[in-house]
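Q: What would this chain look like folded?
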Amino acid sequence: MKTRARGFSLLEVIAAMLLLAITFAALMKVAGGSMALTRNADDHSQAALWARSLLDTVDINAPLHPGTSDGRFNSSYRWHLVVTPWSPGQVDPNATLHIVKLDLDVIWGGRLRERSAHFSTLRVLAPPVVKTS
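A: My prediction, written as structure tokens:
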């Protein structure tokens, strides 16, 4: 009595390899997208840290005045700051405290793929100290 050997046909093997290749390609695309999202999140976190550092110390060395200023944090990140007077509405014109709005843009990336993050806050300014002699 002859027993017939059981196995896979060439067509079944090719179909299985094709399915495996498609699945592997899809997984690699997902992994690549995940790495890109992680890098993007890291860049934005770094920008937020730079912004917080600048906004916390912007008026330490010199008083804030309305206007714009620019600078660099390092070779990758740069900033652009706009200081404008801000008023909540009905304000006593003789008030000794003044409020300014700080709009900070942190910019990074090359010219072809430049990205930025915007940060905005309010700062209360005390009146200048008048020295009497």
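The mean pLDDT is 86.
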